[in-house]
Amino acid sequence: MVSQAVCADTREDFYENTQNRNAVTMQHMREKTKSCQISHSRFLPDCGLMRQEIIVMGLNHKTADVELRECIGFSAEDADAALRNFQNDPAISEVVLLSTCNRVEIIMTAPDAEKAVTAAKTYISRTKHLPVSDFEKALYIHAGDEAVRHIFRVAASLDSMVVGEPQILGQIKEAYRTATLKKTSGVILNRLLHKTFFVAKRVRTETGIGDHAVSISYAAIELGRKIFGNLEEKKVLLIGAGEMAELAVEHLIRHRVGDIFVANRTFERGVELAGQFRGKAIRFEEIPDALTEVDIIISSTGSPGFILMKDQVKKALRPRKNRPLFFIDIAVPRDIDPEINRLANTYVYDIDDLQGVIEENIEDRNREAMRAERMIDEAVIRFREWYEGLDVVPTIVGLRKKLWGIAEAEMKKTLSHSLTHLSAEDGEAMRRMMNAMINKVLHDPTVFLKNKGCYADKAAYLDITRKLFRLDDE
Amino acid sequence: MDFLIIGILFLYLLSTVGYFAYLFQQKEWLHKAGYCLMTAGFVCHTALIGWAYVRSGVFPVNNLHQTLSLCGWALSGFFLFFQQQFRLRIMGIYAAPLVLFLMILSSRLPVEPEQINNTFRSFWVILHVTAILISYASFALACGAGILYLVQEHAIKSKKRGFFYSRLPSLEMLDSTGYACIITGFTMVTLGLVSGFVYAKWIWGKFWTWDPKEVWSGILWVFYAVLLHERLTVGWRGRKSAIMSIIGFAVLLFTFIGVNFLLKGHHGEFTKW
């Protein structure tokens, strides 16, 4: 947000001030100090000294049923409106909104997590015309490390309905793009989202999480590739029709298979389907003849018995010089005699076999998911280091403000009671001395907090510092 | 000499380790490491054989020690060439240990006595031996491809898949590589036999003497000829072809080693030890 950007500038300013301490003249110093004071009073209530917390509030396919997800889901326009609303909400500093058919995630940073969550809940309740109690149970709220981990896991597709599905990363990128266009994402979320994309990509390339097919038609294609090597120019025969079978044919077309034949009990329907795939319709009785030519047969008819028997296939093997034949039987009850699998160079997979492949692949993915979790743990720790570093500046600014406040008050008291004979110039000289003292006193703590000296538990040192000087009670 | 042999053994061993690590880990660099180590081993091996040749002035197949070493050399050379052509990486888990095994066997055998056989100076004999060794190497790889084919075919047919399924290439690729190996092997064995006949005619005045070695070589040639013929006409491919290339390799082993120990005849010298 805009104020956030200004705050960031102020911090930069401060860094410069402390780093180039020796080079700065007294005159300069005074100006700097003044500007510092001004910026404190102006920006303190917004975010300057407040610790920003990362919060994720959301629901997904595990916590909410589809009706609720449909109801709460944000369309593109809804999302724009929501971002605009959150932008104007003082409780929320930065926000990115992700809404897919399986999940809604509101990623925020805010000085006070509870207030931000309440604001978000109220907004949902108001715009979706739902009492908060209706969806509250389905919500999960993560803050800090857990929020970071959650976002990493979602992007790496570990939290997806089908673990390892690749779409989610694109959806998050899109959500982030919208947020940057609307300028609702700032220093923290920019960094967080960039890290998220990095981690997700690493998980995808370094683990086998997206390696194996987890849908029937993909599983069939994977098998086909293990048999034929590549599917280019392989001829396909589709027997019957059905959503899954047609989907498989479409996948095959994407792998540049050759001619497609369609056989249907009603020839007209066959012609229609053939038109859809730019294939050729054949009559049901022609299937045995077609076997000499085609390589992949996908069958999905409503026939109560087998429509292809072992003998019919056996006869076709010699004319085709034993080139492999791959039967994919999606029908229940089955269309292809399972005995055909015993013939040489002939492979029959029915729906249960394909299901078996998928289950195995899912197990593989879950195993890979464990490796992915490890990578994510690592990334969370690395993000935390950066995030904690972010707290250093507000703490140092707070310290300086506290000391300067005390000095100002004491000086005023002394100048107006015991040292009334001093001229205005003398008073100014004392101010300069005070300022130099404060700078000298703060030099070592500043270097210590900013340096890697306390890298391991910076948070603890910051916490102690804030408590020692009671920075948070002000 | 001994130092060089140990070095070669070590390189082949590391290459084998690399290929097996590749089988388990499926990391690109492991396969590359296996390949490079094999190449290094092959270069040293070439130096070893070249040195033996220069020293004695004859082709080094005077005893079993030298013959096995030469076989290992031919196999590793052919495998490296083959890898360039077909990129069937997983083949390393078959070829590398086989080469290693041949070299270990060779290094355990006595180097002496080394009787110089002057026939190994003739061009025809050198051609004969080289062609036959290359054909053996390619038949050995065909056998390997056959074994891998059967493993993969079983995985797909039984619908159990398992460890090898994802690690092995497609059936089509295994089958066509095996086929290419058999074609190469058959061409080389034909060349080897013809050069042998020419030499026999020149020395003994006869092409064919019904020597057991000749008979078994003939059987071997006919076996692979039938395999190729059936493949071209009826389409003997896949499982049948894989099994036949394994049986063919067994016949080959008998022709190569078995005949010398169990039957008598000429060609006895190279397995002396």
Q: Keywords, please?
A:
heterodimer, A: 474 residues, alpha/beta, four-stranded antiparallel beta sheet, 10 strands, 12% strand, elongated, disordered N terminus, B: 273 residues, mainly alpha, 8 helices, 0% strand
Principal-axes shape call of chain B: globular
Instruction: Tell me the major beta sheet of chain B.
Output: none
Average pLDDT of chain B: 86
The count of strands of chain B amounts to 0
Explained architecture:
The complex is a heterodimer of chains A (474) and B (273). By secondary structure, chain A is an alpha/beta fold. Helices cover 58% and strands 12% of the residues of chain A. In chain A, the strands form 2 sheets. Chain A has a 6-stranded parallel β-sheet. In chain A, strands 2-3-1-4 form a 4-stranded antiparallel β-sheet, with helices on both faces. In chain A, helix 7 runs antiparallel to helix 15 (351-417), helix 8 runs antiparallel to helix 9 (187-206) and helix 15 packs antiparallel against helix 16. Chain A is elongated. Chain B is mostly helical. In chain B, 76% of the residues lie in helices and 0% in strands. Classes of the chains: A alpha/beta (474), B mainly alpha (273).
